[in-house]
Design brief:
alpha+beta; Jelly Rolls; four-stranded antiparallel beta sheet; 5 helices
């Protein structure tokens, strides 16, 4: 689910995650819900227009009802994380493009009470920062894993997940080859196949860095 967010400058990338199959919507303790929904609405419409897609075509490609997309773009309704991941994949952007905008200036502070939180069956993630380095786009998340198991759908080729466990014990990695990691342990894996997050015995806190290869060229102009 989401709690808060602002518009973010679009990024043109070659590989975008198919998204973990989170089941959630916009809720929480951050800025008012209306601000989050409005930011998502503006970003979806802006990137869709930049890609030259009609609402009907975007709805068809993403498997989302056109009525749902129409409501989302006028900041009505409460989009689920599955809907947002599906849209992000078709639009060719990371999820963060639809959620968040980096702060301007020499110091960028991301306060926990003001960040979007994406909630799933067992995993909660809040986007803390996005930045580019060379031909790579980076998204940094604070991740909490409740006791239980959540499987993630494949991202596109070239996407990696890098997890630093801060507290607890986490089983994570490719679905057919997961590894156990404790506090202070670091795991990096290619995320173009099914993968898993499972807290072992107690909740887990971790830092997640997702990296996406950029297609090159500048971002399309914001509408």
């Amino acid at each position: 689910m989401l709690r808060a967010g602002e518009a973010m400058t679009d990024q043109t990338i070659d590989a975008v995650g198919g998204g973990d199959a989170f089941d959630g919507s916009v809720v929480g303790d951050g800025p008012p819900l209306a601000e989050v929904v409005k930011a998502v609405a503006q970003n979806v419409k802006r990137v869709r227009t930049a890609r030259g897609l009609s609402q009907a075509e975007l709805a068809r490609r993403s498997g989302i009802a056109k009525a749902t997309l129409s409501q989302l773009e006028v900041a009505k309704g409460n989009p689920t994380i599955e809907t947002l991941f599906a849209l992000a994949k078709v639009l060719g952007v990371p999820l963060g493009v639809l959620l968040h905008e980096n702060g301007a200036g020499p110091i960028n502070v991301s306060r926990v009470e003001g960040r979007p939180v994406i909630e799933g069956a067992a995993v909660d993630m809040s986007l803390t920062d996005t930045f580019t380095s060379g031909n790579t786009l980076h998204e940094v998340y604070l991740m909490h894993v409740r006791v239980g198991r959540q499987e993630g759908a494949p991202h596109a080729g070239g996407v990696q997940e890098r997890i630093l466990v801060l507290e607890g014990r986490l089983l994570t990695g490719p679905l057919d080859q997961p590894v156990e990691a404790g506090a202070g342990d670091y795991v990096c894996f290619d995320a173009d196949g099914p993968h898993v997050y499972e807290a072992l015995g107690a909740p887990v806190t971790a830092s997640l860095l997702m990296t996406y290869p950029l297609a090159g060229g500048g971002p399309p102009a914001a509408g």
